[in-house]
Amino acid sequence: MARSTLAIDWDSETRSRYYDEQESETYEKHVSMLQPQKKKKTAVALRDCIELFTTMETLGEHDPWYCPNCKKHQQATKKFDLWSLPKILVVHLKRFSYNRYWRDKLDTVVEFPVRALNMSEFVCDLSARPYVYDLIAVSNHYGAMGVGHYTAYAKNKLNGKWYYFDDSSVSLASEDQIVTKAAYVLFYQRRDDELYKTTSLSFPGSFDGGTRPGSLQQGMGDDETCSMDTN
Fold first, then answer.
1. Domains and CATH numbers, the chain
2. Residue 53: CB partners within 8 Å, gap ≥ 6?
3. 0.70 exceeded by the pTM?
């Protein structure tokens, strides 16, 4: 909301002569001042990020598309669709914001599921297999633009326990430690066919309301070309 501000620097004698402290508080308040202010959203859901990633977007005035027919730059739209997903799904959260004037680090908490991430509804191929994923690792970034420190959480395939990796230090971790504002890259592994038969394919609930969390990038491709050794 645009607003104007008037600042006056009084000297002591002039202020005592012309300024009345009590009179200054007798102004008529606009009704908007009586409305409770909305709290700033502190978290968004991964589901919201994916929905926005696959939503049609109108390009801005600074990103026109050159039409080969009329030979002019025109405002256009773009849309990303998912046709298939790999066994190992890599979700890269946008943690850095860029525009023509400044760059910034985004510290919004993105709530992501540790188990049963259902991507089936976002895949265009209706005949495709169910896509249900479990989290196996998270790469974290701490710091600001140009500087920072990376750590990671990873799940041991043999004992099913989570561990925290910080340079040469490795310690046991719990699931409730994994979802933080430092999460930068998420690694999910698709469940096999046997698990599909006994697993519910529901997506965890998302947070209500909130501002646009920004864009999201996902690793996509065939199983043969997008594989990872998780041993």
1. 43-55+81-218 (3.90.70.10)
2. 80, 215, 216, 217, 218
3. no
